[in-house]
Design goal:
By secondary structure, this protein is mainly alpha-helical. Strands 3, 4, 5, 6, 7, 8 and 9 form a seven-stranded antiparallel β-sheet that branches. A two-stranded antiparallel sheet has the order 1-2. It contains 38 helices and eleven strands. α10 (217-227) runs antiparallel to α12 (247-257).
C-alpha cells in the first residue's frame, strides 16, 4: 500500500523531488526533503517516480521508460554521493526502491535496467535531448553515451557545492563560523560562483538559515565582492575585449537579473551597489570598481529599471567614506580607478560635485570636493569654466569663494591645447579686479601667471599700477592685504617670463616708497631665470647694482642699501652673461669682507658648476627612466598592462614590506623575456606572482632597446599570460575553499584520478605522496616546485572525487 501523502510536509517534499528529477532545482535544495522521504515507505517515492516518468515519457523519441526510471534512481543515489543524506540509510532505502522501480519497467527493458541499477555507483552518466536538463541513461553496448563530459562536469559542480555545505555545517555546529566571518564569506562566494541560477543561490541561503545563520542576498553580494581580485585593469579596448568576465561578477549579475520580480531585482541591485561601497570603505578600490562595473552592465542591459538605477546612483554613494576618498584622491596612481568609481554616482560626477561645492560652507569638505574634481580631469575643468564664465553679479550673494574654487580648478587641471586661450584669459581678467574680495583676486592673479599671453601681461602690469595707487592713497582697505597681493602679482609677472612682464616687475621693485612694501624683495622672483637674452632687464639691474654699491667719502666706506644690493645680486644669480660675471667679480674684489661679496661669490660658483665657466663640472649623465610605487595601489596585472601597452624594455623588481626581493621580471619591447620568484622561473613564476599577489613595492628601471642575442622566439606576450594568470587566480581561490591552507587531508579507499589537463605525472605522484603522509596544502606549495594553482586544484579534484577527505 502506498502511504497517503496527507501530511503537508510530505506533499511539499514530493513536489520538490519532482522538480529535482526534472533538473529544475539542484541536489543541495532537495536534501531536506530527501531526508524526510527516507523516513517514509519506499512505495511513496516509487509512486512519485512512476508519476514523473509518465509525465516525461514520449516528450523525446530517444528516451525509453527504463531511461527515465534509471535517471530517477540515479538522481536519488547522487544525494548520497554528494553526502547530502546519510549513506547507510540511503543504501538500504535504495535496495527496496530498486525492486519497486523494476516492477514498473516494461518486461523487455527490465533485464538491462536491473543490470545497470546493480552497477549504479559505477555506471557512467549520459544525457539525451529529453525535457529534463540531464537525463541519466542506463549503459548499453548498443548505445554510445552522448554528452557524458557535460554531465560529469555538472555532477562535479554539485559535488563541490555539497562539500561546501558539509564543511560549513560542521563549522556551524562547532560554533566556529558566524555571519560576516571569513569561512562563511568564502563558502558563500564559492557557492554563488558555482550556481547556475539565482534560484540555486536562494536554496543555499535557505540551507544556511536552517543552520541558524541569518544570511541573505546582501551577504552573498558582500562575499562575492570580497572574493574579487584586488586589482582592476586600466580601460583598454584590447584587454577589455580579451578578458573574460569574472565568475563572481557573473554570479552578481545573475542574482539581480533572475530575481523573481522587478521589486526584488531593484532591492538586490541596491545591495550590489552597497557591497561596492563597503569594499571601498574597507580599503579595496579595485574590488569596488569591479563590482560597480557589474552594476553598470546590468543598467546597460536594462535588467534594472531606470528609476531603481538612478536611486542607487544618487543615494548609495552618500555612504562612501570621506577619509578614504581623500586618501585615494591624493594618490595620482589611483586616479584612473577612482574616476571610474566616482562616475557611477551622480552626486560625484563633475556637475554633482560642482553643485555641492557651490553650497558647501565647511572648508575641509570643500577641499575634498576640489580634490575629487581634480580626479575627473578635463570634464571637471570644462564644467568649472562654464560656471565661471557666467557674468559676475552681486558677488557677496553669489559667494566669492565658489568662484575662487573654480579658478583654482582651472589652474590645477591642465588645459587642453586645442582650447582657445583668449576666452579663458578674458574670463580670468574679469576676476582680477580690486573691487572684488582679495582672496578671489589672488586666485585670478595666480591663473594669469600660468596663461602666457600678451593679455595676461597687460592685465598684470595694470594691476601693479592699480595696487601702487591704492597703497599710496590709502582708504579704508587693509594695506597689508594689498601689499601681499602686490607680492603675488610680482610673482605672476615673473612666471610669464616675457621682457614686458619683467620690466613691469623691475619698475615696481626699484621704487623706494615704503608704502609699497619691501619692493626690492620682489626681485627674488627672477632668481631662477637666465635673463641673458633680455638685455634691457639685465642692463637695468646692473645699473641698480652699480648705483647702490658702497662708496668712499673722506676715506670712509659709506653703505647705501645692502638689502637692495643682495636682492639685485639674487635676481642676476642665474644669468651667467659676461657683464654679470664681470660685475660680480668686481664686487668680490672690492668688498671681500662684505655680505654682498659672499653673495656674488656664491653666484659665480653656481655659474661654474652649471657649465658657465672654467673648471665647470661636466653635465651629469641622465639617469635611466624609472618608475616605482606601491603594489597594493597599482596591482601587478594593471602595472604589467601599462608596461606592455607602452612597449618598454627594462627590469621590474618586486620587494616585500621588509625590502626583500620576491620577484624579478625582464621585459623587452613590452614582452616578457624572463621571470623569477623563489625557485620558480619562466611562465610558472609569472603565474605564481599573480596567483599569490603580495604587498610591497615595485621598481621598474627602463633600459634602451638592444638587439636580442637570443632572438625573439623566447619573448612572451604579456596579455595572454596575464589573462591565464587571472583565471588561475580565480580558480585558486575557489579550490582553496575546499582545501584551505592548513587542513589535514587523508586518503580514502577511492583511487585518485588525474586532473584533466594536468600532464605532469611526476607532479601528481609527488603531491599524492606528500599529502597522503599528512602534509598540508600550504606545505605542499612550499615544498613542490610548481605554481600554487596546479597544486591546489589537484588537491581539490581529489577531494571532489572522494580520494581525499578532511580529518
Amino acid at each position: 500500500m502506498v502511504e497517503p501523502a496527507a501530511d503537508p510536509e510530505v506533499r511539499e517534499a514530493l513536489t520538490e523531488l519532482d522538480l529535482y528529477l526534472s533538473d529544475i532545482v539542484p541536489p543541495l535544495v532537495v536534501a531536506g526533503s530527501a531526508q524526510l522521504l527516507l523516513g517514509r515507505a519506499p512505495e511513496l517515492v516509487a509512486a512519485a517516480i512512476r508519476s514523473w516518468t509518465a509525465g516525461q515519457y514520449g516528450k523525446s523519441g530517444e528516451a525509453s521508460v527504463s531511461d527515465y526510471l534509471y535517471h530517477a534512481v540515479k538522481k536519488i543515489h547522487m544525494l548520497g554521493e554528494f553526502r547530502l543524506v546519510p549513506q547507510e540509510p540511503l543504501e538500504a532505502y535504495l535496495a527496496a526502491l530498486k525492486s519497486l522501480v523494476l516492477a514498473d519497467c516494461p518486461e523487455e527493458e527490465r533485464a538491462a535496467l536491473s543490470e545497470n541499477l546493480a552497477r549504479l555507483g559505477e555506471a557512467a552518466a549520459a544525457s539525451t535531448a529529453a525535457p529534463v536538463a540531464r537525463l541519466h541513461r542506463k549503459s548499453a553496448e548498443s548505445r554510445a553515451p552522448s554528452g557524458g563530459a557535460a554531465s560529469a562536469q555538472e555532477e562535479a559542480v554539485h559535488r563541490r557545492l555539497a562539500l561546501y555545505l558539509h564543511r560549513l555545517e560542521s563549522q556551524a555546529r562547532q560554533a566556529a563560523v558566524a555571519p560576516g566571518g571569513a569561512a562563511l564569506s568564502d563558502t558563500l562566494a564559492a557557492a554563488a560562483r558555482e550556481a547556475r541560477t539565482a534560484g540555486e543561490v536562494e536554496g543555499y541561503l535557505s540551507k544556511l538559515r536552517d543552520l541558524g545563520l541569518p544570511v541573505g542576498t546582501a551577504d552573498v553580494f558582500r562575499a562575492l565582492a570580497g572574493s574579487l581580485p584586488a586589482w582592476a585593469l586600466a580601460p583598454s579596448s584590447e584587454w577589455q575585449q580579451a578578458a573574460p568576465e569574472s565568475p563572481a561578477l557573473g554570479a552578481m549579475r545573475r542574482m539581480v537579473a533572475e530575481a523573481a520580480d522587478p521589486l526584488e531585482g531593484g532591492r538586490r541591485f541596491q545591495e550590489l551597489v552597497r557591497a561596492a561601497v563597503e569594499r571601498f570603505n574597507a580599503g579595496s578600490l579595485p574590488q569596488a570598481v569591479s563590482t560597480l562595473e557589474a552594476a553598470e552592465r546590468l543598467i546597460a542591459e536594462k535588467k534594472v529599471d531606470a528609476g531603481t538605477a538612478e536611486l542607487a546612483r544618487s543615494k548609495v554613494g552618500e555612504a562612501l567614506d570621506p577619509e578614504r576618498l581623500k586618501i585615494a584622491a591624493e594618490n595620482a596612481s589611483q586616479h584612473a580607478s577612482l574616476r571610474r568609481l566616482l562616475g557611477f554616482f551622480s552626486a560625484l560626477g563633475p556637475e554633482g560635485l560642482l553643485d555641492q561645492l557651490a553650497r558647501e560652507e565647511k572648508r575641509d569638505r570643500r577641499r575634498l570636493l576640489l580634490a575629487l574634481l581634480e580626479v575627473h580631469g578635463e570634464p571637471a575643468r570644462a564644467a568649472a569654466y562654464e560656471a565661471l564664465a557666467v557674468p559676475i553679479r552681486e558677488i557677496a550673494v553669489e559667494g566669492w569663494y565658489f568662484r575662487r574654487n573654480l579658478l583654482y580648478l582651472l589652474r590645477k587641471i591642465p588645459r587642453p591645447e586645442e582650447l582657445p586661450l583668449d576666452e579663458e584669459i578674458d574670463v580670468t581678467i574679469r576676476h582680477a579686479d580690486l573691487r572684488l574680495p582679495p582672496p578671489l583676486v589672488r586666485e585670478a592673479v595666480a591663473n594669469l601667471g600660468q596663461l602666457r599671453h600678451e593679455k595676461s601681461e597687460v592685465a598684470l602690469a595694470q594691476l601693479v599700477v592699480d595696487l601702487e595707487q591704492a597703497l599710496t592713497r590709502p582708504d579704508d582697505r587693509d594695506t597689508r592685504e594689498l601689499t601681499q597681493l602686490l607680492d603675488r602679482v610680482a610673482g605672476a609677472l615673473a612666471r610669464l617670463e616675457t621682457p614686458g612682464a619683467r620690466r613691469a616687475l623691475v619698475d615696481d621693485a626699484l621704487k623706494r616708497d615704503p608704502k609699497l612694501g619691501d619692493t626690492a624683495a620682489r626681485l627674488a622672483e627672477l632668481s631662477s631665470q637666465d635673463l641673458s637674452e633680455d638685455g634691457e632687464t639685465v642692463g637695468r639691474l646692473l645699473e641698480a647694482l652699480k648705483a647702490n654699491l658702497p662708496f668712499k667719502l673722506f676715506g670712509l666706506a659709506l653703505h647705501q642699501n645692502d638689502q637692495v644690493l643682495l636682492h639685485t645680486i639674487g635676481a642676476l644669480s642665474a644669468t651667467p652673461s659676461p657683464a654679470v660675471r664681470s660685475a660680480f667679480e668686481e664686487i668680490v674684489s672690492r668688498f671681500p669682507d662684505k655680505e654682498i661679496a659672499r653673495a656674488a661669490s656664491r653666484a659665480l660658483e653656481g655659474f661654474r658648476k652649471s657649465g658657465g665657466g672654467p673648471g665647470a663640472a661636466a653635465p651629469a649623465t641622465p639617469a635611466a627612466g624609472s618608475l616605482s610605487g606601491d603594489l597594493e595601489v597599482f596591482g601587478l596585472p594593471a602595472l604589467l598592462q601599462s608596461l606592455s601597452d607602452s612597449g618598454v624594455s627594462g627590469s621590474l623588481t618586486l620587494r616585500d614590506p621588509r625590502g626583500q626581493v620576491f620577484g624579478a621580471l625582464r621585459l623587452k619591447g613590452g614582452k616578457l623575456r624572463a621571470c623569477q620568484t623563489g625557485a620558480l622561473s619562466g611562465e610558472d613564476a609569472f603565474y605564481q606572482l599573480l596567483e599569490r599577489p603580495a604587498p610591497g613595492q615595485f621598481q621598474f628601471l627602463r633600459t634602451p632597446d638592444a638587439p636580442d642575442e637570443t632572438g625573439t622566439g623566447s619573448l612572451k606576450a604579456i596579455l595572454p599570460l596575464t589573462l591565464e594568470a587571472m583565471r588561475r587566480h580565480d580558480e585558486l581561490k575557489q579550490a582553496s575553499v575546499l582545501v584551505p591552507d592548513d587542513v589535514r587531508l587523508k586518503a580514502t579507499q577511492t583511487r585518485p584520478s588525474p586532473f584533466p589537463g594536468e600532464k605532469d605525472g611526476m607532479l601528481q605522484k609527488d603531491l599524492w605522496s606528500r599529502v597522503s603522509r599528512g602534509a598540508t596544502p600550504l606545505e605542499c606549495e612550499t615544498e613542490i616546485r610548481c605554481d600554487a594553482y596546479r597544486i591546489r586544484r589537484l588537491l581539490a579534484h581529489w577531494v571532489e572525487q572522494g580520494a581525499l577527505q578532511t580529518d
